[in-house]
Amino acid sequence: MNMLKHPMSDLAVFVRTVDLGSFAAVGAEIELTPSGVSRIVTRLEHRIGAKLLHRTTRRLVLTQEGETFLVHARSILAAVEAAEADVASVHGRPRGHLRINSGTAFARHRLAELLPQFMDQFPEIAVELSVSDHRIDPIADQVDVTIRVGPLCDSELIAVRLGEVRRIIAGSPRYLERYGIPEQAADLARHNCLQLSGFSRLAQWPMFEQGKRIMVPVKGSIRSDSADFLLDLALGGAGLVRFGDFLGEAAVNEGRLVPVLSHCHDPDPQPITALILPGRQTIPRVRAFVDFLKANI
């Protein structure tokens, strides 16, 4: 449901204006002029008897009253959407448009396999998946479920743990035959370690030595911001790679990659989390998708 075309659209326009930061951006979405959007917000302010936004030539800033009102407005709009979805699903299965965001690796190696199964179970749900390794703003982009792998930043989104990912260090049989199998953490210094760029914490690989956890700096001839690309390089014999288990699970099972240093490597378990817009966790299509992921990851 497009809340900007709903009878409660004054609320929706106000919330969307805060999310996007300008009357012009909202106007482009709902085919109104910036002044038309401004008049809607002004009408809302007159109705409740309080100024919600400070307007300057450069930006819009929430007043204290606006901050309080925004929390209630989001809850009201989410409750209306959830109520309509609940009623619509009483006589049938969950339905409607579901917006999902995921990183590239998880989308390729997990969602590509799971989404067809989900669609078989819930054929009346239409899925829109955006794939990006850059952080998005789920509120501004109106993404129902954002899937994140790894540590989370503080957020007003609702976090549901889906599972965990564990890291593996591996190389191809050809690479290991040529350069030898590392037996201890110090041996990494003589190996070409393929590194994921953009994440400083991944430039060192956590190992155990004499019962103590240590961080081992690694070096290699290739860095990339694509975990998939590094995995392909490792399969081609370019070096050792450290990856989340869901990326190389098939390659390991098929013997195309051979895990190494399992006895002293810290797999560093990290959560796989679904982040849900506040209020939408009760919408049947959102609830169905999150429950499906929890059962299958």
In a few lines, what is going on in this structure?
The protein is an alpha/beta fold. 41% of the residues lie in helices and 24% in strands. The protein has 3 domains: 3-89, Arc Repressor Mutant, subunit A (Orthogonal Bundle); 92-161 and 272-296, Periplasmic binding protein-like II (D-Maltodextrin-Binding Protein, domain 2), CATH 3.40.190; 167-268, Periplasmic binding protein-like II (D-Maltodextrin-Binding Protein, domain 2), CATH 3.40.190.10.
Verbal overview:
- The protein has 297 residues and is of the alpha/beta class.
- It folds into three domains: 3-89, Winged helix-like DNA-binding domain superfamily/Winged helix DNA-binding domain (Arc Repressor Mutant, subunit A, Orthogonal Bundle); 92-161 and 272-296, Periplasmic binding protein-like II (D-Maltodextrin-Binding Protein, domain 2, 3-Layer(aba) Sandwich), CATH 3.40.190; 167-268, Periplasmic binding protein-like II (D-Maltodextrin-Binding Protein, domain 2).
- The chain contains ten helices and 14 strands.
- The strands form four sheets. Strands 4-3-5-14-6 form a five-stranded mixed sheet, with helices on one face.
- Strand 9 and strand 10 form a beta hairpin.
- Helix 1 (9-20) packs across helix 3 (34-48) and helix 1 crosses helix 4.
- It is elongated.
- The mean pLDDT is 89.
- It holds the Pfam family HTH_1.
- GO terms for molecular function: DNA binding; DNA-binding transcription factor activity.
- It comes from Bradyrhizobium retamae.
- Residues 6-63 form the HTH lysR-type domain.
- This is HTH lysR-type domain-containing protein.
